[in-house]
Automatic annotation (TrEMBL):
Record's protein name: Dehydrogenase
Keywords, in A-Z order: Molybdenum, Oxidoreductase
Segments forming domain Aldehyde oxidase/xanthine dehydrogenase a/b hammerhead: 48-162
Gene Ontology molecular-function annotations: iron ion binding; oxidoreductase activity
Annotated source species: Aureimonas endophytica
Gene3D superfamilies listed in its UniProt record: Aldehyde oxidase/xanthine dehydrogenase, a/b hammerhead, Aldehyde oxidase/xanthine dehydrogenase, molybdopterin binding domain
Pfam families: Ald_Xan_dh_C, MoCoBD_1, MoCoBD_2
The keyword Oxidoreductase is assigned to this record: yes
Domain of life: Bacteria
Length: 764
């Protein structure tokens, strides 16, 4: 039977999954390749150490960079002593604002289609200091050790100016409304304050989350060199195309003069975009006339690459006697700099979560002098779901209702704010399946009821949600050879999430070719398209482009095939890929192989390129990834230590394209969520604006002993309105985890911790 299914030809009309069309058949049928748990094709290279990362590119005449960072938050440099560094062994160049080439600021992310900069401040152009940790000098030397030594000899003296480094003081000074992608985040529907006041059941509390820093295992790095006026950047990035364009703006070049590649990325999570280090390395390479390698130290990542900002969120929920929400108020303040564009949008998840009569949502911004905060896995949702989903748990307690039942009672039948239909939402099914598998019915509803020796045991749940996005700019090239092999090329990214593997599966399925006859090229700004590995949208963006390119390929193949073929007279939407050729969809015996078509036409190969359609689907439907998160924790009654003993994520993310890589994405997100719940916290000295724990010794992330076996399941229900029926799986995993853990801690102890991370001091 499986064989029979696989023998079905696969094709689709262009954008048939778009408004008004049929779903992509790849999403509907069972296939041999789509969904299969295929191991990552880049796996062997990585475990053998053969995959070459940005800081490993060999180059003749390479020099190594080290950075000196400011130790004040605001003011100006009055003296920079560089003589000792210049005289130190191996030193090739010391670059400061005095000799750096003139450069424009980096185009700030989201302010232009291909902008990739994390901050719009000038880079080493003047003596002004804008944050504690700003690069003030760069040393190039013949070895990394010599560069590190020389940079330690640089002495800076400053004239300080008053800096705003206290969140409370910045709030007191006055906040401004948060804007996300140019739109105000504030929304009001009805009279939420009035509805809350009148509601018989209510909760109203403030939840706080700390700063988080990015800690991908691969440090931010680049190897750069100039060939005349052409700049080559071997980068570690989530955005090759955006980076090439943005760096071109900085140096006044044409986009085509900057070539960025990034074949492997050792973790990105939103941080591997354009920060000062790539720009400084390129500037220094130009001055020195030599190729430059820059690898930020772990401290360097904390100093110049932003992280997630601090949030203070009020959630007030009012419900009627049956638990139906009458009011949802989710407002609060985040810290941000004046030079970036991400006011941690913690209300995004709340916009689509529950049916309610009234809403009041708002994000206010307090402006601080600090390193520009930025995207970090599920920006907004990761911390927003902590507040919202803890509040739902508190409301369930107030109502004496099971928290899952409360959520199901408030399940909306259309988008609560936009009124648009959901493209695909099976969150209730995810809850039911998760509850059964986790053994939710063994949970004691009263806190503190279960004890094993010193350990109090509790269970909690929370909803996970992350929007479906698809950004414009996707394009793909397909080369089909007479040898029956296909090569697909897209300027996309592999950060270890399985992009190359999944896209090879998809292309092979669509073309009707075996997996090993298809290759996938990516991570190079000269390839088609400008696709961001961010917003959990890369798979959809590539998918739409590959669908368009494949459609064009089929049309051209039919033209080449002519009339002397079993395919004569057929149109592109009547045929599909099958066993190395094209076949009529409902009559597969009418078939001709690709090799035969190309041979008869006297062609070695056929190359097509096409752009993905505009993302109209998001205007017609409310589209999100969903999950139901379940945590079991043990809290030590003597020490307050929290151990997560079991965790289950039950997901509804459309069609799962590769069961193995998707499960890893879910688990990775959940592990990061456990860090958010229990340990991650940037210690920011509010007197000086200095980050005090810039190392993995003092900034704690979960290690193996902190992570229990994580069970993940999914509905695998295709969304008919996305390419391949899939939703993003990259960020959903971190959402809801903080609340699931906090709710379990409450169930174990009766203590409601509304301030992350849940460290043991808060439980004693
Ligand atoms: Mo993600 S924070 O969109 O890389």
């Amino acid at each position: 039977a499986a064989q029979a299914v696989m023998k079905k030809a696969v094709q689709l009309a262009p954008d048939s999954w778009m408004p008004g069309g049929e779903p992509d058949p790849l999403s509907r049928q069972k296939h041999g390749l789509v969904g299969a748990p295929i191991s990552r094709i880049d796996g062997p290279l990585k475990v053998q150490g053969a995959a070459r990362f940005a800081a490993e590119m060999p180059m003749d005449g390479l020099v190594y960079a080290a950075l000196a960072y400011s130790t004040i938050a605001k003011g100006r440099i009055v003296h920079l002593e560089t003589g000792a560094a210049e005289a130190a062994p191996g030193v090739v160049l010391v670059m400061t604002h005095r000799n750096a080439p003139r450069m424009k600021p980096m185009p700030l992310f989201m302010t232009a289609e291909k902008a990739a900069g994390g901050s719009s401040l000038p880079i080493m152009q003047d003596a002004e200091i804008h944050w504690n940790g700003q690069p003030v000098a760069l040393v190039l030397a013949e070895s990394q050790e010599e560069a590190d030594h020389a940079v330690s000899l640089i002495e800076a003296r400053y004239e300080t100016a008053p800096a705003m480094t206290s969140f409370a003081a910045a709030k007191a000074k006055g906040t401004t409304p948060g804007l996300f992608m140019g739109q105000p985040l504030g929304t009001k529907v009805g009279d939420a304050a009035g509805a809350l006041a009148a509601a018989p059941h209510k909760v109203d509390a403030v939840y706080t989350t700390p700063r988080h820093n990015h800690n991908p295992i691969e440090l931010h790095a680049a190897t750069v060199h100039w060939q005349g006026d052409r700049l080559r950047i071997h980068d570690a990035t989530q955005a090759v195309g955006h980076t090439a364009w943005s760096v071109a703006q900085v140096f006044g070049l044409d986009e085509a003069q900057v070539h960025v590649t990034s074949p492997y990325v050792g973790g990105g999570f939103g941080s591997k975009t354009l920060w000062p280090h790539q720009v400084l390395a390129a500037a220094a390479a130009r001055l020195a006339g030599r190729p430059v390698r820059i690898v930020l130290s772990r401290e360097g990542v904390y100093r110049i690459v932003g992280g997630r900002t601090v949030t203070e969120q009020r959630v007030a929920l009012g419900a009627d006697g049956e638990g139906r929400l009458q009011a949802v108020i989710h407002t609060g303040t985040v810290a941000m700099t004046a030079h970036n564009a991400l006011p941690e949008p913690f209300i995004l998840a709340t916009r689509g979560a529950y049916a309610a009569r009234t809403f009041e949502l708002d994000v206010e911004v307090a402006t601080l002098d600090m390193v520009a905060n930025t995207f970090m896995r599920a920006p907004g949702e990761a911390v927003g779901t902590f507040a919202l989903e803890c509040a739902m748990d508190e409301l369930a307690v107030e109502l004496g209702m099971d928290p899952i039942e409360l959520r199901i009672r408030n399940e909306p039948d259309k988008d609560p704010l936009e009124g648009t239909p959901f493209s695909s939402r099976n969150i209730v099914a995810a809850y039911r399946a998760g509850a059964e598998r986790f053994g939710w019915n063994e949970r004691h509803p009263s806190p503190g009821a279960r004890r094993e020796g010193e350990w109090l045991v509790g269970m909690g749940c929370a909803t996970a949600t992350y929007p479906y996005y698809r950004m414009p700019g996707g394009a793909a090239r397909i080369r089909l050879g007479r040898d029956g092999r296909a090569h697909v090329a897209v300027a996309a990214h592999e950060m270890g999430m399985g992009t190359a593997t999944v896209q090879t599966q998809i292309a092979a399925e669509r073309l009707g070719l075996p997996l090993d006859h298809v290759s996938f090229a990516y991570g190079d700004s000269t390839l088609p398209g400008t696709i961001l590995a961010g917003g959990s949208q890369q798979t959809a963006a590539i998918g739409a482009a590959v669908i368009a390119a494949h459609r064009k390929l089929v049309e051209e193949l039919l033209t080449l095939a002519g009339n002397d073929t079993p395919l004569a007279g057929l149109k592109a939407d009547e045929v599909g890929g099958l066993d190395g050729g094209l076949a009529k969809l409902d009559e597969p015996e009418r078939r001709e192989s690709y090799a035969s078509i190309l041979m008869r036409a006297g062609r070695e190969d056929l190359v097509v390129e096409a752009e993905g359609s505009q993302p109209l689907e998001t205007q017609h439907w409310s589209m999100h990834s969903y999950g139901a998160m379940f945590a079991e924790v043990k809290v030590n009654a003597v020490t307050g230590e929290v151990r997560v003993s079991r965790f289950l994520g039950s997901f509804d993310c459309g069609r799962i394209l590769n069961a193995k890589t998707a499960a890893s994405q879910f688990r990775g997100g959940i592990i990061m969520g456990l860090g958010l719940a229990l340990m991650e916290e940037t210690q920011f000295d509010e007197r000086t604006g200095r980050i005090m724990n810039p190392s993995l010794a003092e900034y704690h992330v979960p290690v193996h002993l902190d992570v229990p076996a994580i069970d993940v399941i999914w509905t695998d229900i295709p969304d008919p309105h996305t390419p391949m029926g899939a939703h993003g799986v990259g960020e959903i995993g971190i959402t809801g985890v903080g609340a699931a853990v906090a709710n379990a801690v409450f169930n174990a102890t009766g203590k409601r911790i509304r301030d992350l991370p849940i460290t043991l001091d808060k439980l004693l």
